[in-house]
Amino acid sequence: EIINKYATEQRALSVQELRDTASMFGGHFIKERLQYGLYGLYPKYRVYIEPLSIFQGMVGHALVVATLQNDRGSLSDKLCEQLWPHLCGMFSPWLAPYFTRHLAEPTAAWIQQLTDDRSVLPPWIVADSGHANKMAAMFVECIRFVLDTLPAASSNMLSCVWQFYVTNFAHNSIKDYILGVMHSNFISLPWQRFFPSLQDVDLMLKVVDQYLPDCHTFLGAVFIEVPWYTWVAHTATTQESSRAHGALLHLLIKLANEPNVRQTAKITSLLLESQQFAWQLVDCSSYESVINWFVMSYDPRVILQLPGEDWSNIDVAALDLLEMAAGYSPKVTHFHSTTLRKRQMFVRASVK
Fold it and tell me: Which InterPro entries match (predicted)?
């Protein structure tokens, strides 16, 4: 609240001065990280984390207000595009792992000697997770302030967060203690306001198709909050509608089998609701990869649904969805040119 009050009342710094301050901080700590940061910045700045995180939070919040006041006539998405690079640049040195092959500048020689066999420099070690959590929490508070101040930019900002997350954290070389800090903070954002672009959906597919259990857990928690019914209605009018439906079917079936997703009632209702989507747009090649994965991964008892057996409503809903997507149900009134092939795939999968 104090930071919010400062942001709305301060007049000492102009929007450009705030941008310069954010850039200066980000640039300085990037250099520090490359020079000293074998284990991130925390070993050197541990005792200063509280004031540093608060100061960066003050700059971030003030920058949001100043940007809004400076560009009153601009669209929210444009304001978001102005804000994100500065917020991200200021907090990234504290939170993002550094992949050595992607660094624009080399690390110090002593770091290179110690990291010959490592492709990633972690942003912190286990012992510094508490300090990192303070910085991550302040980063999220800045993001939340943008979402509260510019509600119309919510989806754009959350898209930036999602892309930042996948780029930096959806890798098998990232340790679980790092993911734990980032997940616990990022999941607190209002993902029900997220309206993913096709690029965002492609990144979801990229995550779900790798063996990244912790990332799957986070993605599942985000996925079930997204208003997919509205999203599908919007994409139905675009040229990419077929690809969008294929990707969504893939995500629905795979994520519905994730343990944490199965613990929520939302996935069953989402699977049932999604039966109404335009699955006739999905071609047989997209359908085949999904149905084959279903055969390998789901409990085969769902096909028989014998009385007295303990089978899952989620599995039944997933099977029903695949039946609809195959055009094998009498409820289906629209068909793809490859519907016959999809029906054959569904029958073959059921027999398997």
Answer: Autophagy-related_EPG5, TPR_Epg5_mid
Which pTM value belongs to this model? 0.90
Instruction: Give per-10-residue mean pLDDT for the chain (352 aa).
Output: 73 85 93 83 93 93 87 76 94 91 60 63 94 97 92 92 97 95 98 95 96 95 94 80 92 94 90 90 88 87 68 85 80 68 75 70
> How many Å apart are CA 66 and CA 78, to the nearest integer?
14
DSSP letters spanning 294-315: HHHHS-GGGTT--TTS---HHH
Token representation of residue 75 = 């669209």
Q: In whole angstroms, give the CA distance from residue 118 to residue 114.
A: 8
Nearest to 11 by CA among 67, 83, 66, 86: 66
Q: CA-to-CA distance for 18 and 41, rounded, in angstroms?
A: 23
Q: Residue 221: count other Cβ atoms within 10 Å of its Cβ.
A: 18
DSSP 85-101: HHHHHHHHHHH--EEGG
Strands in the chain per DSSP E = 98-99, 120-121
**DSSP secondary structure letter of residue 103:** -
**Domain residue ranges in the chain:** 1-193
What's the CA gap between 347 and 352, in Å, rounded? 9
